[in-house]
Write a structure and sequence with these properties.
This protein has helices at residues 67-71, 89-110, 124-134, 161-167, 174-179, 207-218, 244-256, and strands spanning 2-7, 22-23, 30-35, 45-49, 57-58, 76-81, 117-122, 145-148, 193-198, 223-228. It is α/β, with parallel strands linked by helices. The protein is globular, with a radius of gyration of 17 Å.
């Protein structure tokens, strides 16, 4: 596994040493890019958005810990240490847009296609990934999306309250909540989706995944949804999840079919 780290805005190399597994804030957005052996490169890449309710970021188990899984399958992984929104959706969305720009600009050197860059996120990171998939920015046009126990809707009846509070402006209206509810913004151009949730998730209700899958189906978007009966919330790659091996095989099969 080949390893790179870049700063999104300055594009300067940074050290990987001493990285905190949970990050409360960054002044400069950055990303770590993990590259596979060129001999097995698939041409795909994934931009990863760790979760944390937009109050912090679980950089390890929802980010860095996924690196070996993807690179072993010939897929580059970029884990973004984005700035927290602080009531400004444009702030965090701009960081992911910039990440896609860097990835596309570097694709030829790093060994993947600029048209085969997907997005992935967990919990509030799943909300960010789904938002970027349904609200294409200037440079961010994900080829596919991988969502784990995602916050999808900002409907107060089913959302994660902290995610909604930290993302939206303090004077947000119902229209703002609808604008950033991915299930209400799906179109035929929304990229293929792989969505995973657990029925016993008591942090982010499974209704979020169900609404998104239904919207994707109505729009004719290729979508796979797995609902496991147990598992709770926040397990990431390295957490205690009894269906982990099965899930990893399912992801592998789905990615090969794209």
């Amino acid at each position: 596994m080949k390893y790179f780290a870049t700063v999104l805005l300055a594009l300067a190399a940074v050290s990987a040493a001493g990285a905190a597994p949970r990050v409360a804030e960054v002044s400069e957005p950055a990303m770590r890019v993990y590259l596979p052996d060129p001999e097995i490169a698939s041409g795909k890449a994934v931009v990863c958005c760790p979760g944390g309710g937009y109050a912090m970021k679980a950089m390890a188990h929802e980010g860095y810990d996924w690196a070996e899984y993807f690179t072993d399958r010939g897929i580059a992984l970029a884990v973004v240490d984005y700035r927290l929104p602080d009531h400004s959706p444009a702030r965090v969305m701009g960081d992911i847009d910039r990440a896609f720009e860097v990835m596309a600009d570097s694709a030829a050197v790093w060994g993947f296609s600029p048209d085969s860059i997907g997005i992935m996120g967990s919990s509030a990171g799943g909300h960010l990934a789904a938002t970027m998939s349904t609200h294409p920015e200037a440079r961010c046009h994900p080829a596919f999306q991988l969502l784990f126990y995602p916050v999808i809707s900002l409907d107060s009846a089913i959302t994660h309250a902290g995610t909604r509070h930290n993302l939206l402006p303090t004077d947000a209206t119902d229209a703002d909540a609808r604008r950033f509810s991915a299930d209400l913004n799906v179109s035929a151009s929304t990229p293929p989706a792989f969505v995973v949730h657990c029925g016993d998730d008591d942090i982010v209700p499974v209704e979020n995944a169900l609404r998104y899958y239904s919207a994707l189906q109505r729009a004719g978007v290729n979508a796979t949804m797995l609902i496991y009966p147990r598992g709770g919330h926040g397990w990431g790659y390295s957490g205690n999840f009894e269906r982990r091996a099965l899930l990893l095989d399912e992801i592998d099969t789905w990615l090969k079919g794209l």
